């Protein structure tokens, strides 16, 4: 409405506060109006008055993925999951994305092109963009499409092109131009990975004095393995001064001194940096997983925070799960045995609730883990333990090895499902006693977190003869770890598969107590993950 001149920025800001402060009351009443014309929505908004203000943040994510709109990797589920969790806690969240070619928003209910010109500076000139706005899962979403540089987001893939720096730098600059022109004054601009890290220096060098003096920057990194190194002079494409930023304490790469590092710029110019990992501590990240950014991360250690990933508990909850033959909970676990027998019947396994059933759901698997799995299965299946493997590998070599594994393991107690089946995965979590995990930091499928919720023990894949060896995913007990890492290290991290099978068999009452305790833990997006984000927002707003 601001872009088209219907209302001014001040009134728009008041409306945003009204929505945020209402905690859902106003949005429920407005739901049928959202998809109508601006005039109708405006008329209804003006009927409301602010009654009793509640504290909440206005957060704008500027990112490249979001479920279910565009999903390539782990970023998409994170953006949607944390946004919904934050809104449930009374914050106003918006998302800005590139308008990719495969997204036909003309056919999506509720999305409309804003009839206003948005110009963005790039390569020495102002260039026009098209803008679409709408709602996804109750989250306000804006898509930006370059007109002159229309090829930037018309390719088949989201990432992996020689001009990725130009593509995402253009989008980042256009997103900031949109925020300024629309009159938004968010508390936090939340940027993600290297693709929108350029917003850090852009914000402080160009935009902060354009009505955004109260806005702060938070960067989230899903990892440091992808950083984007470029020639320093390319920074001028979006209006930055290379001579000011090409310094070791700013964007100059720590190893390749003739290049600038875009992710490093995000770390340096953000007020806080959240690193998403369920099991590593801050020191472990800095010392071993910085991929050349260790000096930068050490200097900026005080602004680094660790947050665990979560899962959507409205979908992954055995007491509500629509894919289960009988629901169950920590208070009444009787339905779990029903789910086990149903799973056994579905996969033509011997149907017996007393059988120990081990699931293994993976999105990829290493040759090391595959060799260990072979030994584990050979040993345990001879004792009547049942196994279900579901997943695939993107590696041709591993896929071939998996085929040989299947041939070797022609056993009445072992079943393989070659592709990931979401509906069946719910039944595997519910019917399994144990979930074998190649990693406790499973970013794609979040197997360990879901396993705990469904009353299945997450057990690490490790060599069969390392009964008492320390888990390779954990070092010493780390008191600075996430709640999940502390819990898993205390309860399941040191258990081998043979130990877990032995405990289930010889001490079932103690095992059931342990699993009931695990089911009562909350490791969803709404728990520790969103709490850490809110603390980060609160901290940077005080700067």
Automatic annotation (TrEMBL):
Q: Please state every residue range assigned to the domain named Starch synthase catalytic.
A: 58-297
The UniProt keyword set, sorted, is: Glycosyltransferase, Starch biosynthesis, Transferase
Q: Give a single Pfam family match.
A: Glyco_transf_5
Q: In which pathway does it act?
A: Glycan biosynthesis; starch biosynthesis
Keyword check for Cell division, yes or no.
no
- Please provide, alphabetically and separated by semicolons, the GO molecular function terms listed in this UniProt record: alpha-1,4-glucan glucosyltransferase (ADP-glucose donor) activity
Q: Which reaction does it catalyse?
A: [(1->4)-alpha-D-glucosyl](n) + ADP-alpha-D-glucose = [(1->4)-alpha-D-glucosyl](n+1) + ADP + H(+)
Q: Name its GO BP terms in alphabetical order.
A: starch biosynthetic process
List the InterPro entries.
Starch_synth_cat_dom (IPR013534)
Q: What is its EC number?
A: 2.4.1.21
Name the record gives this protein = starch synthase
């Amino acid at each position: 409405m601001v872009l088209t001149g219907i209302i001014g920025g001040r009134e728009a800001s008041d409306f945003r506060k009204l929505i945020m402060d209402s905690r859902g009351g106003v949005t429920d009443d407005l739901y049928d109006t959202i998809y109508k014309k601006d005039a109708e929505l405006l008329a209804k908004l003006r009927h409301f008055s602010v009654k009793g203000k509640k504290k909440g943040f206005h957060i704008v994510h500027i990112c490249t993925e979001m479920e279910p709109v565009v999903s390539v990797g782990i970023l998409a589920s994170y953006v949607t999951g944390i946004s919904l969790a934050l809104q449930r806690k009374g914050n106003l969240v918006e998302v800005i994305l590139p308008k990719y070619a495969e997204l036909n928003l003309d056919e999506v209910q509720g999305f409309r092109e804003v009839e206003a010109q948005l110009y963005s500076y790039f390569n020495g000139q102002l260039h026009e963009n098209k803008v679409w706005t709408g709602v996804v899962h109750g989250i306000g979403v804006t898509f930006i499409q370059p007109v002159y540089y229309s090829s930037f987001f018309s390719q088949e893939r989201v990432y992996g092109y020689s001009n990725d720096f130009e593509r995402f730098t253009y989008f980042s600059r256009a997103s900031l131009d949109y925020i300024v022109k629309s009159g938004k004054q968010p508390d936090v601009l939340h940027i993600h990975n290297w693709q929108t890290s350029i917003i850090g220096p852009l914000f402080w060098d160009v935009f902060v004095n354009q009505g955004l003096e109260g806005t702060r920057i938070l960067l989230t990194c899903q990892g440091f393995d992808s950083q984007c190194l470029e020639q320093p002079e390319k920074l001028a494409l979006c209006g930055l001064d290379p001579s000011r930023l090409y310094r070791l304490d700013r964007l100059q790469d720590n190893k390749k001194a003739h290049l600038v590092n875009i992710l490093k710029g995000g770390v340096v110019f953000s007020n806080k940096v959240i690193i998403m990992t369920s099991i590593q501590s801050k020191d472990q990240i800095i010392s071993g997983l910085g991929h050349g950014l260790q000096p930068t991360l050490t200097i900026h250690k005080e602004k680094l925070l660790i947050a665990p990933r979560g899962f959507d508990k409205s979908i992954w909850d055995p007491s509500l799960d629509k894919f289960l033959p009988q629901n169950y909970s920590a208070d009444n676990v009787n339905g779990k045995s029903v789910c086990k027998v149903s799973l056994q019947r579905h996969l033509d396994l011997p149907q017996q609730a007393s059988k120990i059933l081990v699931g293994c759901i993976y999105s990829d698997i290493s040759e090391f883990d595959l060799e260990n799995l072979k030994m584990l299965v050979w040993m345990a299946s001879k004792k009547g333990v049942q196994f279900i493997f579901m997943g695939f590998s993107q590696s041709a070599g591993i896929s071939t090895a998996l085929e040989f594994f299947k041939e070797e393991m022609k056993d009445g107690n072992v079943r393989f499902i070659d592709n990931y089946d979401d509906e069946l995965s719910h039944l595997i979590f519910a019917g399994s006693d144990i979930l074998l995990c190649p990693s406790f930091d499973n970013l794609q499928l979040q197997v360990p977190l879901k396993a705990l919720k469904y009353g299945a023990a997450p057990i690490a894949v490790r060599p069969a003869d390392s009964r008492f060896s320390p888990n390779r995913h954990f070092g010493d007990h780390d008191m600075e770890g996430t709640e999940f890492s502390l819990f898993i290290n205390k309860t399941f991290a040191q258990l081998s598969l043979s130990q877990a099978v032995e405990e289930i068999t010889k001490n079932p009452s103690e095992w059931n107590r342990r699993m009931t305790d695990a089911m009562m833990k909350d490791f969803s997006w709404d728990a520790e993950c969103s709490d850490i984000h809110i603390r980060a927002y609160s901290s940077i707003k005080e700067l």
